[in-house]
Specification:
Length: about 120
């Protein structure tokens, strides 16, 4: 049996994962669509949140602000590390990098959404 607090935590994680998936989809559409004022904002938000959120799907964080700080720091580390590898390899393609990071992050978030109901059972 799940208590009320556990249910709220699982529901908030599901809402957070769905919001991040929506952000990923909007950023993908913004990149493909003609330039507009929302494009840089959506792409920056996606780069600052998605890779770190994908890593944090497997970690417990004590509160939302800690989660946000860790997501931003981890995202910046993943973005910088993968960019550095691409530069060293002489294969600098930022659109491909963004697409791969976005797809991998979305996959991790979807897996997290699929596993949440299984974790809710005693």
């Amino acid at each position: 049996m799940i208590n009320v607090f556990q249910r709220r935590v699982l529901e908030s994680a599901a809402v957070r994962d769905l919001a991040l998936l929506a952000l990923a989809v909007m950023a993908g559409i913004a990149v493909v669509a003609p330039s507009g004022p929302a494009q840089p904002v959506l792409v920056l938000l996606a780069l600052l949140l998605l890779p770190g959120a994908a890593v944090l799907t497997r970690l417990d964080t004590p509160d939302p602000l800690t989660w946000l700080g860790l997501a931003i720091v981890l995202s910046m580390a993943v973005d910088a590390g993968t960019s550095l590898v691409m530069l060293w390899a002489g294969l600098w393609h930022p659109m491909v990098l963004g697409s791969v990071l976005g797809a991998a992050s979305m996959a991790a978030l979807i897996v997290d959404l699929r596993l949440q109901p299984k974790q809710a059972r005693p």
